[in-house]
Amino acid sequence: MRKIGLGVVLAVLLVPMGLMAQSNEELMKQIEQLKQQLQSLEQKVSSQQAAPAPEEQVKDLDNRLTKVEIKTAGDNISWGGDMRVRFDNQSWKINPYQQVMGFDPHTGMPITHQVPAQNWSNPMQWSMRLRLKMNANVTDNLKFMGRLSMYKLYGGADVPIFNGQPNTVYNGSVSARVPSNDVLHVERALLRYDFPNAPFTLAFGRMNTSDGPPLEIREGTERQATPMAIMVNAEVDGVHMDYHMDKLGLPEGTTFGICAGVGYESGFGGGGQVSSSYTMTPFGMGSINGMKDTTVAGFIYDMPLLFEVGNTVNSARFILGYNRFTNMGDIPFGSLINFPIPGPYAQPSPQYVTATNNLGDMDQWGITWEHNIGDTFTYFLAGGYIKSHPNGKVSQYGFGGLLGDPTHSKTGTAYYAGIKWTPVPMFDLGVEFNHGSPRWYTYTPSSGEVGDKLAARGDVWEGYMHINFNKHASMRIGYTYYDYSTAFSGWHIAPGDLNYYNLNNNAVNFYAFPKTVKNAYLLFDATF
Description:
This protein is mostly beta strands and 528 residues long.
């Protein structure tokens, strides 16, 4: 009898807890019905002390209450997502170059082999990307936002084939944005707290740092991230705080944010919990000693504008940002296939790689202007500037110091521009162009496409046509032409002065780097 009575008491106590969690009329009715059944059951228990039937009824009623509570908890999370299927037809033109086959043990000079011009092509590459988005209001001021992503090639391998681009080194900063396998990866997972009595917002976790402005113009979506695409497009773990400056009389929505994150953990997650470690390099075993964490800190000023010119409503946005990368490592921590280690030290693939030295610091500046003229025309202008601060060290893989010079500061610049015309709501045409100087570098390994065009040293043209079947489904047809001027695009390191790696001058390289890339693509995108 005590067990039956205790079960009844616990079931009754669960009722107000479930009641607090309900948010719709249907669940409230279910709770009321269960309460009435509990009252009736209590009367039966008091009149029939030894009867076994009420105990079974209590158990069944407890199970029903549990199901109602689980349904209520699930209703607290808002789900959505999108799915993209993409087809690419790509061809590479590779100019003659001297491939490094090893190093002379007496002079230390590279032993090279002349490689003639080549043409590579991949006429049919299919890929699929699935993203599941979730939001939940934890409290009135605390919100959770997350996104899980799966991105793979049709028939692709579990680890991407290394082709000289940094986004084919599989690591934590690109795990959800480089084609790999059919596992869902955490691309975003952050908590955001809005201070109730102060104009501040605090967010921490895996931040929304991919597909930033102005990429949403080409994608035909709302803004996807905080940082500008010309500065950062990767998965970054850190913290961000915004100050809402409209309280000072600036346009509504104006914010000034400060951020900090970790790019490479040299201790537990990287080099291990020992003072020294080793890795295989083209020169044999390399010793890793005293590595420091790679970190980033910066700010972003973001000001939206809304104004009228004649009878046309205009909306615009001005963004200014700065990042300071400290203790930058050489090679990303991760795994890959076909890393170019020449014999006799060649290893079978896939292969693990890790940073071997901290090479110094780097300043990064970015600026973006977006302007929508009514519903018909949109254009944008973006620019970037970097300056290295090397510490004299070089990579033990033989790839030199920061921007190819371990002892002197170097700078790089880039600009990015585009225009989109929307004659009717269901159709638009766009063209984009970006240029990077021979020493340009930006932290964008998670572009989520075949090539990382914003990291290119040289010129990139892209034209596209966007067809919106309805508000949930669309198709984009496009063509991208890359004309590289200098090797090692996307890398912050190089074996030597980048002036010597002009792709028109029979450059010395560890691997083939294309002079031009032509990529025609077709993609279908659906949101739900």
